[in-house]
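Changelog note: in this version the structure field was regenerated for every chain. One regenerated record is shown below for reference.
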Amino acid sequence: MAPETEPPFQRIATEIRRRIATGELAPGERVPSTRRIAQDWGVALATATKALTVLRLEGLVEALPRVGTVVATPAGPAAGAAAAPGVPTDHAPGRRHRPSDAPESELNRERILRAALELADAEGLAALSMRAVAARLGVSAMSPYRYVTSKDELVLLTADLAFGEAAYPADPPAGWRARLELGARTLWSLFRRHPWLAQLSPVTRPLVLPNLMAHAEWALAALEGHGLDATTALDTHVLLYSYVEGIAVNLEREAQARAATGLTEQEWMDSRTPALGALIASGRFPAYTRLTAALPDGYDLDLDALFEFGLANLLDGLTARIERAGAEHDRA
């Protein structure tokens, strides 16, 4: 272990570096998350982030969205090796450069938000803080405050950046249904890419973000001119958005559960087989027993398939309502 005189983040980095060097952590294998480091070492999340940042700047680890921080695949025979005496760290063999690696004099809001987005994607919303972003950028803890006033603003600006990654065509597809399908699938793709977005706020407290409003505008424009009154049109939009977000909530929860238990979704389900078998054997749930008997290979829950199934049924239900409203409008 490193001497106790070293700062905590250096001691943590030294220990993880040792595990990588000895092969305890192999390329592609996940290293402890910021949450796990904070728990095991009794340090703040920002300190844990700083330790991982040191290793990232050395090219030893890399952050993968919704996977976490993993041991980097060596870029060459000397990848991850320490710099020779007199050689700056930036020029050490195997050094991996990332967009966020730059001196503090080049700090700006865009770099801060990009770093925040990377952090939230890799570690989840709970890991996102001003100090953690500063640590990731390798700048002083107070530097980001020159460009972003608070953590709340950081979260909102980062969310707006994420929602702005997808745009709609200038020439929309024909028909309200095709336009709503495109809108829903676009939102689903964003939640897929950034699962933490679904954790931000209930629909009763909508986020006032320009790039999120663009998705609402697309849906409302699709509903316009079909005889729906204003309240019904807004209710329909909120219903569709809530449906997409409601399915997407499970993406982040699954990532959190995997990080906490170390088990994949399938491994967790396999561990519950005896308990499910006992429920079936009890005879108290005959409908469930008959359905599972009809699926000898088991039931595989696929969130993407479930999303498409629900979307189709939701739009089927809206069709009658919208067609009726349109007919009434034409008669008026």
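Spot check on this record: The chain has a mean pLDDT of 85. The longest strand covers residues 61-64.
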